[in-house]
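Issue 218. Parser rejects a valid record. Input:
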Amino acid sequence: MKAACEIGVFQGQALPNGGPTIFHLLYADDTLFVGELSKRNIKNIDRILHCFYASSGLKVNFDKFKVFGIEADMEEVSRWATTPGCKLSSLPFTCLGVLVGTNMNLTKNWKLVIERFHKKLSIWKSKTLSFGSKLTLVQSVLGNLPTYYFSVFVAPEGIIETLE
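Output the parser choked on:
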């Protein structure tokens, strides 16, 4: 991707105030490409992914290939996203369990996080586990999930009480 940006095949997104240009973010086996919204960029990402597959043998899941247009004419983006398997999507979306593209200062946008806590601490689990196992489950959920979410967002008032 760095080489593709250097030779002008892909236009990344420059950060403000003279910051670096971002063209992709990686986490485990997930990749988020960030760039100028253009038909050329969309087609070239598709080509780059096909070249990656051909050279590495690692399968690319094109079912997850989504294009998000931020402050863009969605009809135009829809016309550009004609690559096989390419789907048009919109904000907000979930990436690695975190809601992206929404105002997390609003309590209503924490509903997904609260539901995730409830799911992890569901009633049926508490009925089938010993006291020690319940304690371990609660410590695991309440110890890890908040660290994950609170490292990304500042919780509005009331959310912490709700989670407790």
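Fixed in the parser; the record now loads. Residues 2-90 form one domain.
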